[in-house]
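Review this chain:
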Amino acid sequence: MNLMDLDEAQGLTPQMVREWLLANQWEPRGSSAAHLYYQCGSGEISEALLHEDLGWVVDLLAQSYERSVQALLCEINPRMRKGVPSKAALRAHRGLWLRSIGTETIATVLSRLIDEFPSPRDNESYFWPCDEHGNKVRWPTDAQGNML
């Protein structure tokens, strides 16, 4: 199974993993960008590996921290995107969207309301599509799998 196919991995970037490493006491080491790596205790992860095999890095971290891959992915990748979803994303997912503004409570909003009644706080809001029970679902993608 490819870990990057999990719903929790959708939208995951090397930057998100890098930020998680730094927040969890992994120290950057190396004399140049070409030789940059992160170290914590006896563990080492190269910057190049973040770009080559992100799934392998997440699996290694999950094993090292004795956590499930999904739990670690949820922590690294909260799956909320800043700003109003694109028109294409709103058309593709006509159901509910989770919306948060900063650390305020998350609310569910109908996609047509986001599209038809813009809010002055839209640009500082975070959104993610959800089902009728408020469970996060996959972000709509184009035919090539790119997030809309």
Observations:
- Helices lie at 14-23, 47-52, 54-64, 69-76, 87-92, 111-116.
- The beta strands are 27-29, 37-40, 43-46, 81-82, 96-101, 107-110, 125-130.
- The mean pLDDT is 89.
- The chain has six helices and seven strands.
